[in-house]
Amino acid sequence: MELKIALLKGDGIGPEIVDSAVMVLEKIAKKFGHTFIFTPYLIGGCAIDETGMPLPQETVDGCMASDSVLLGAVGGPKWDSLGGDVRPEKALLGIRSALGLYTNLRPAKLYPALRNASPLKDEIVGDGFDLLIVRELTGGIYFGERGLREGRFGTEAFDTEAYSITEIERIGKAAFEAAMKRRKSVCSIDKANVLESSRLWRKTMHELSEQYPEVHYTDMLVDNAAMQLVRDPKQFDVIVTSNMFGDILSDEASQITGSIGMLASASLGASKRGLYEPIHGSAPDIAGKDIANPIATVLSGAMMLRYSFDLNKEADAIEAAVDRVLEEGHRTADIIGTDKSRTPLGCSEMTKKILKVI
Ligand code: IPM
Ligand code: MG
């Protein structure tokens, strides 16, 4: 296959980790007889520096003309004092919306080799957990009506959470379909005891669940879910939730794996074109030092092969290589834990280990 991949390296460690993933994808292309054509575009702080805008139109057009998009990370202290519309983060929201990527898949699993990295006690973790957060990504309070107005106590700011049945149904379908390929369980998370939007969310999910009789369906209030994630994460298979609750719970879920540097994500819409990125941020404090963990971005590349291109063998090859490298005991600094007998590998050294196994 010949496929066009847009690269949005972004800021901080973004360029180094995307370069690692590109090397891995190139190796896969060679091994399996594909051609991947990579084209870089600006996004985030580096785009602000060069063009004055965090998401130049050229970047949106380039992504639209590609078969899929691989993103590093955006943002850093240099751009933190800028106003809402020109912040690097605005570019993320803009590209998700422009590409219609309403489904965000954020898997959080405990790697057996990294069990000691989890902050949870052994009796909670047991033989590990493997859950998938399906986060709605182009609606809710992130995109609702907002502004400043005069209120009872003077000037106030407001943001609005709104969800239509159509939006709830399409993210719900994504979650049920994902569950059918996993352990067939969906937990929908909301705040239906307080929010009107959550009551419609819950009702719609319930109705949708009737179309998937094989899937065990439950719902849970978000405050309880935050607690259950650290009390008993093994109870979850697929979690489906709104944009903002998903943002918060996915950070919590990544933290209990103990290895945020390992977690990949996929953002998908109605077409095959997706946007794939590590869950972690731009880590400006370690940028350019060649010590970042490239694995989350490498695994994001694997997700791209699987979800956008249906190249499952190729994706398996990447994931197996990562497992193998970890089992051999190789670690970057973020996942080395308390084991003083190991020397941490840098970003490029870790990439080489993965390439060698492939
Ligand atoms: C994420 C991030 C973004 C979000 C920010 C940077 C806009 O936290 O991808 O989880 O809130 O969606
Ligand atoms: Mg977040």
Overall description:
- The protein is an alpha/beta fold.
- The protein contains twelve helices and twelve strands.
- Helix 11 packs across helix 12.
- The two termini are 19 Å apart.
- The model has no long low-confidence stretch (mean pLDDT 95).
- The site of magnesium ion (MG) has 2 residues, from helix 9.
Layout of helices and strands, plus pairs?
Blueprint: E1 2-10, H1 14-32, E2 35-40, H2 45-51, H3 57-64, E3 68-73, H4 88-98, E4 103-109, H5 122-125, E5 130-136, E6 146-151, E7 154-159, H6 165-180, E8 185-190, H7 196-209, E9 216-221, H8 222-231, E10 238-241, H9 243-257, E11 264-268, E12 275-278, H10 295-307, H11 312-327, H12 347-357
Parallel strand pairs: 1-2, 1-3, 3-12, 5-10, 8-9, 8-10
Antiparallel strand pairs: 4-5, 4-11, 6-7, 11-12
Helix pairs in contact: 1-10, 1-12, 6-7, 8-9, 10-11, 11-12
Q: Which key terms come to mind for this protein?
A:
alpha/beta, 12 strands, single chain, 2 domains, 358 residues, Isopropylmalate Dehydrogenase, binds 3-isopropylmalic acid, 12 helices, 20% strand, ten-stranded mixed beta sheet, binds magnesium ion, two-stranded antiparallel sheet
Small molecules (ligands, ions, cofactors) in the structure: 3-isopropylmalic acid, magnesium ion
Mean pLDDT: 95
Q: Which series of helices and strands comes N to C?
A: EHEHHEHEHEEEHEHEHEHEEHHH
User: Helix count?
Assistant: 12
Write down the Rg.
20 Å
CATH superfamily of the largest domain: Isopropylmalate Dehydrogenase
Unreliable spans = none
How many domains?
2
Strand order of the largest sheet: 2-1-3-12-11-4-5-10-8-9
* CATH architecture assignment name of the largest domain: 3-Layer(aba) Sandwich
Beta strand count: 12
- Give the amount of beta strand, in percent: 15-25%
Question: Between the first and last Cα atoms, what is the distance in angstroms?
Answer: 19 Å
Anisotropy-based shape: globular
* CATH structural class of the largest domain: Alpha Beta
